[in-house]
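Raw record, unedited: Ribosomal protein S18 acetylase RimI
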Amino acid sequence: MTSVTVTDSVDIAELSRVYREVHAADLHLKDHSDPTVEQRLTWTAEAPGFAATVAYVDDKLAGTVMGCPLPPETLWWRDLASSEPALTREWPGRTFAICEAFVLPEHRSQRLGVPLILELLSSRPEERVTMAVAETNTRVWRALQAVGFTHVGDLVPFPGWRPHRMLVCPLPLSSRR
């Protein structure tokens, strides 16, 4: 049985374990080790306005989507290639950022990722949502396009990381389910 819950509190140790299982083949890459998984998950979970969806299959954590509203002074858009100044300007209530999203491989056939995103965003009051996806992650990129995300530019989130596609989608998403 699968259950999906929206929450403002998560177990960092449990999420870290699942993250490492999901990304086992890529843990040698800098984008999965610097900053550490625990640091990234903690930063997101401690951000003002933090929210997450967590999925459990047969009482075992299967995946999560985590994010927070972007503050006006955000560094989220720094170094964005081919951006328009209006795109990167933030104000309270403008943008919710999905900072982490992952589902265990054995549950991907159940297509949990998109429902986790849709459930998290279904009651968000912001005008839009954004997410960075590694340019090599074409499976996720295609799934997000189908929901209405648009590619607005590319950037490298942290020094030494692979390039990521920056995606944006207007909210609400409820009509796209």
